[in-house]
Amino acid sequence: MPGSTNGSTNGSTKAMAALTVGGLVVVTAYTVALGSNGWLWFGWVVLGLLTLAMVVSQS
After folding, report:
1. DSSP string spanning 6-58?
2. CA angle 47, 58, 17 (to 5 degrees)
3. Which distant-in-sequence residues (6+ apart) come within 8 Å of 48 by Cβ?
4. In the chain, which end has fewer C-beta atoms inside a 10 angstrom radius, N or C?
């Protein structure tokens, strides 16, 4: 069933996007409270690029 594969992949992309947005909130809150941490921002950028790659591969 090709339709079921698209549905699960679309759900995983939405979950990845939600994780990316949540990560941005956490990294921003950490930066405001304790100061900047380059590794956290680097990790968030990598996560964002992976999310973007998943979105692009869907289309």
Report:
1. HHHHHHHHHHHHHHHHHHHHHHHHHHHHH---HHHHHHHHHHHHHHHHHHHHH
2. 35
3. 20, 24
4. C
Q: What is the pLDDT of residue 10?
A: 84
35 Rama class: left (phi>0) / alpha (psi -120 to 50) / beta? left
Give the alpha-carbon dihedral of 42, 44, 47, 51, to 10 degrees: -130
pTM, rounded to two decimals: 0.76
Q: What is the pLDDT of residue 33?
A: 96
Report CA dihedral (31, 35, 39, 42) to the nearest 10 degrees. 40
Residue segments in the chain with a per-residue pLDDT below the cut of 70: 1-9
